[in-house]
Design a protein that fits this description.
Layout (H helix, E strand, L loop, with lengths): L2 H7 L1 H6 L8 E5 L10 E5 L3 E11 L7 E7 L5 E8 L7 E3 L3 E3 L4 E8 L7 E12 L3 E14 L3 E2 L5 E2 L1 E6 L7 H25 L1
Parallel strand pairs: 1-12, 2-13
Antiparallel strand pairs: 1-3, 3-9, 4-8, 4-10, 5-9, 6-8, 7-8, 10-11, 10-13
Length: 201
């Protein structure tokens, strides 16, 4: 499959042009269950979540037929678990196997419509799954993005907005021995208080 290679050859042309008025916008939505584009999310260690790569404003005269993306993250804070196609491209769709690199911290994903047609409007390009590994903050940043209309014609795009995920420590549960010590201490205090009252009487 030569699709990614052809798109890389057109990358210089895409980035050499300044964004045109009305060019599609791309954003990372770190909380797809909340209406609107959410650029910040807070989760706890061990929590799984997903982030969507969202595109808006694709012109019907210049519809999207294929895309390639590479999203970077901090592998000391997050672990990538999945990458699946969104609902934007028109069927039938072919997806290259997603590359989840949890050493470098990058997800690579490509998708193409097998028919010579394209999609317009707004939608989700890809949904990416993660698990929070450790406390800290990880930026989700699209390092590479290529868009193509039917027959491999490059699509110029506008602003690309990333996201950020903050990971907090997992809510701790008191250890049993701490609870025992606390209970014994409380019992001693009650006993002393009762003994003091008895002396006063």
């Amino acid at each position: 499959m030569c699709f990614p290679r052809l798109m890389r050859l057109s990358a210089a042309l895409i980035f050499a042009c300044s964004p045109a008025f009305g060019a599609p916008l791309i954003a990372i939505d770190v909380d797809p269950d909340t209406p609107g584009i959410q650029t910040d999310l807070t989760v706890s260690v061990g929590q799984a979540f997903s982030a969507d790569v969202v595109i808006t404003g694709v012109d019907v005269a210049d519809p999207l037929n294929a895309f390639e993306l590479a999203l970077g993250f901090d592998p000391s804070v997050l672990q990538a678990t999945s990458a699946i196609d969104g609902d934007f491209l028109l069927d039938p769709v072919f997806n290259l196997e997603a590359q989840l690199d949890n050493l470098v911290g990058e997800i690579s994903f490509s998708s193409v419509t097998l028919a010579p047609v394209g999609a317009s409007g707004d939608g989700v390009l890809a949904s990416l799954g993660f698990v929070a590994l450790a406390s800290g903050t990880s930026v989700l940043d699209l390092n590479d993005l290529l868009l193509s209309a039917p027959f491999g014609v490059p699509i110029e795009f506008g602003e690309v907005s990333g996201g950020a995920v903050s990971v907090t420590p997992e809510a701790g549960v008191p250890e049993p021995n701490i609870l025992v010590i606390f209970a014994l201490g409380l019992a001693v205090l009650v006993s002393v208080a009762r003994h003091g009252r008895a002396k006063q009487l």
